[in-house]
Amino acid sequence: MTWDRWATDPDARSNITFWQLWDQVKEILRDRSSHCFAALAGWVYAPSREEMVQWDVMASDGKLKDKNYRPWTDKRNDLFRAAPRQAVHDEAWKRNRRHFKEIWGEDLTEEEK
Hints:
The structure is a single chain. By secondary structure, the chain is mainly alpha-helical. It has 6 helices and no strands. The longest helix is centred in the last third of the chain and has 14 residues, at 91-104. The radius of gyration is 26 Å and the shape is flat.
């Protein structure tokens, strides 16, 4: 049962109420090691319960510099994040930039000279 079908198909709505559906969703979200919870929380990946416990124990033992650090919340670990944009400037762009700065009386950087 998808949300679109439940919202648009009256026959589907007669089989399951919104509150029954919501009860099922709440059960899924109670499990903090589920992928659904990780996606809604903005985590990079869904850690196992053992991994969560291990990091909590290390934090309580004082083995971490930052007691709140958890690798699944660190966006640097996201393998699917967008790469930083690389500025690619051809010679025409650089020439236009030098010309613009000369018109407005701005100083040129070492790269632009």
